[in-house]
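CO-FOLDING WORKSHEET

Operator: S.A.
Ligand of interest: pyridoxal-5'-phosphate
Run index: 336
Mode: holo prediction, single chain
Checklist:
[x] sequence pasted
[x] SMILES validated
[ ] output reviewed
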Amino acid sequence: MIDLRHHGDSEVGGGLIDFAVNVRTGTPPAWLAERIRASVADLAAYPDPSAARAAVAARHGRAVGEVLLTAGAAEAFVLLARVVAPRRAVVVHPQFTEPEAALRAAGHAVERVVLGGDFALDPSAVPDDADLVMLGNPTNPTSVLHPAEAVAALARPGRLVVVDEAFMDCVPGEPASLAGRLPAGVAVIRSLTKTWGLAGLRAGYVLAEPGLIGRLAEAQPLWAVSTPALAAIEACCAPDAVAEADAWAAAMGAERDRLAAALTGRGLHVVPRPAASFLCVRLPDALGVRALLRQRGYAVRRGDTFPGLGPDWLRIAVRDAAAHDGLLKALADLGV
Ligand SMILES: Cc1ncc(COP(=O)(O)O)c(C=O)c1O
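OUTPUT RECEIVED:
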């Protein structure tokens, strides 16, 4: 039985160098922390989401009625699970396990479509009569980015396709995002917690047609998104912030590709064409290697809690060159 509720945050602590949690290091940036601090002056009032909602709509070229702000992507999964009544719900794996956990917690049966090979999306693997399909893009833990066309092709009358784009801001220019297009029958979930270092604040949103947004809003607790989170959402959707994230994504991508080349050079299998801020790596006895790395002070994310991976897989977060050198040295000491 896979523990769907296992996440990278339970793999860190105790002074370990963190390659397990996919939150950008050195975040939140000072200007963003200052905006959040300033919002404390408004805490006596109940949160007013209107400015942040408008900022999200403007960032993606959507109407305000197509936006619901949430306490992170995690809340969005729960709200969706509460409002849908699927006859055949399909979760495309390997992917982040909370969408499936939320569906099950809401009492829905879930079918897994497990991608093979290099984890490219195979639309023909999704049963024709699935009326709810959930997938990630780019996908945690594989780092695979599916083309926008392939994801959009899953949409059809009578089906809701939910795309978790929590890591889409790792991809410069976001060419594969459906946030700006929002084809009929597609809902997009976004998170601000990774790139901006706001995991503790809880900030995300859903983009979908206004009818679904209304149903999700009905299911959401009142004032679910706090005033500091609203300040952060508004700030992170401003054009300067989007440009800053884009520049980071390009630099992160170069560092990621160097780490991938170094690992590949040692004979490890790295899932090709990684697009997000982590690598998915296969090596013999990955769990044993992970345990020995922990003894040397390094935390990497186990892969065996993701349906479709197994004990030979690890997920490694992208950090900076110095941190990568340290990890590569620790691996070399283990003969990897
Ligand atoms: C793919 C993916 N989606 C969503 C989330 C949850 O994001 P949030 O912090 O916004 O709830 C995570 C967190 O690990 C994730 O990896």
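REVIEW:
The radius of gyration is 19 Å.
Residues 52 and 234 are 4 Å apart (CA to CA).
[x] output reviewed
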